[in-house]
Write a structure and sequence with these properties.
Helix content: 40-55%
Number of strands: 4
Radius of gyration: 51 Å
Oligomer: single chain
Structural class: alpha+beta
Order of helices and strands: HEEEEHHH
């Protein structure tokens, strides 16, 4: 004959078994891919922000009509690293070209000028001491200018007199 168990003992055994089963389920859910805590989830207004602690990639997960969907967040660091790599390769290429020396294509028949032909030459010491002479107008040139100014003055006075007569005659 079997010994009779108390209801308390059977209740404790059932509770222990339930805790063990639920504990193993929780452990199985929190450890995806056999790792403990690979993803870290942070709630955001649009859904959840997911960080993959193994690779460092971030994704935004949102709930749509068919279920949850996660989209990778653009990684600016990867773009910067790619640009830095491209620039470093270009610098190395240019250093190689510079080390190879200048390349001249074609043959030049005439030697290159040593100075700019359009640039005015600096005055020499003896030329720097010379005086600048400005030619003055002759008496004939002065007479022509005075004649022109007299004619222009007379025409201006005549025009002013005509305007005054026209205005005074109409009023």
């Amino acid at each position: 004959m079997r010994p009779v168990r108390s209801s308390t003992a059977s209740w404790l055994a059932a509770s222990f078994a339930a805790v063990m089963v639920s504990g193993s389920l929780v452990a199985a859910q929190s450890a995806p891919d056999g790792e403990n805590g690979r993803y870290t989830m942070t709630p955001i207004p649009e859904g959840v922000l997911r960080l993959d602690t193994r690779t460092g990639t971030m994704s935004t997960c949102t709930r749509n009509g068919t279920g949850w969907a996660c989209y990778a967040v653009p990684d600016e660091r990867a773009a910067f690293d790619a640009e830095i790599g491209r620039l470093q390769a270009e610098v190395e290429k240019l250093k190689g070209q510079l080390a190879a020396g200048p390349t001249v294509s074609g043959k030049i028949e005439e030697p290159l000028p040593k100075s700019d032909p359009l640039k005015k030459a600096e005055p020499k010491a003896a030329e720097g001491e010379r005086k600048i002479e400005i030619p003055l107008p002759s008496d004939q040139d002065l007479d022509r200018v005075m004649s022109f100014l007299e004619k222009a003055w007379r025409r201006l006075i005549d025009m002013a007199n005509r305007v005054q007569k026209d205005v005074s005659g109409k009023i």
